[in-house]
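In pairs, describe these two lines:
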Amino acid sequence: MKIVILDGYTENPGDLSWESLAAFGDLTVYDRTPYDDKIIAGRIGDAEVVFTNKCPIRKPVFDACPNLKYISVLATGYNIVDYNYAWEKGICVSNVPTYGTAAVGQFAIALLLEICHHVAHHSDAVHEGRWEHNDDWCFWDYPLIELAGKTMGIIGFGKIGQTTGKIAKALGMTVLASGSRETEAGRAIAEYVDRDTLLARSDVVVLHCPLFPETEGMINRESIAKMKDGVILINNSRGQLVVEQDLADALNSGKIYAAGLDVVSTEPIKGDNPLLKAKNCFITPHISWAPKEARERIMACSVQNLQSYVDGEPINVVNKPREARS
């Protein structure tokens, strides 16, 4: 069996091992592959199995690689694969569904706490000698925000949303939720409300929902107008959930006090993104998912995905393949 990994570096920059996948056959690992259909198809060649993280696999690639039978995405999101066309071609597509629950929930709170306390800024100020030469025994450059007693609204209350909600509740916050099917576990953490109620009542709005046509651009001029003045927005889900110019305008006007973002609409970010010059906008380079512990889970699940495919009973399938081609 020939196996190709198109963009392995982000999953494994050198602190993990590909040996468990290499045990299945002839493995070729590319750290990075340009997002060019011809190059991608050339690297896949006659491989039967392909792993990809963010390298797109579209119709021209499928058509150029007739031996391709199985794709495993080294992530939860799988929109980079034309999975509907894969189904037409009889190709199975799997993903890794739950590896980053703890890491992503933790990072959402990290973004929020940075906004509330500006820890990095104040640490830098101390190292620069500003505390040493300060007239008072303490100082701060930004308003310091206590979260206890405030309300967090989480749009998308699946496993990650519930993890963030548990931490927020431990901090003394009231938690509201919308955008997910109500569950008993969710009701133990949050009050389920409709989205407009959530926007109106929340001091902090957190996005933990997938990117679908109905969620794309959900944070826009109209929805922002329904929020409290001075609200905080956290998004480490998908950048396309936000209309970025509308968010930048709201930050610059003060309607939104601050935003903590680990994702933007085009990644890596482009220099003309309006959020780069917006007030109180904290942007990190899509790293919520990346602790080593989470990447180890990706590796383990990917091995399990491949083993299940080899056994003829694929798991974590995100499309509906026809009978495997002979």
Observations:
- Residues 292-310 form the longest helix (19 residues).
- The first strand starts at residue 2 and ends at 5.
- Confidence is low (pLDDT under 50) at residues 322-326.
- The radius of gyration is 22 Å.
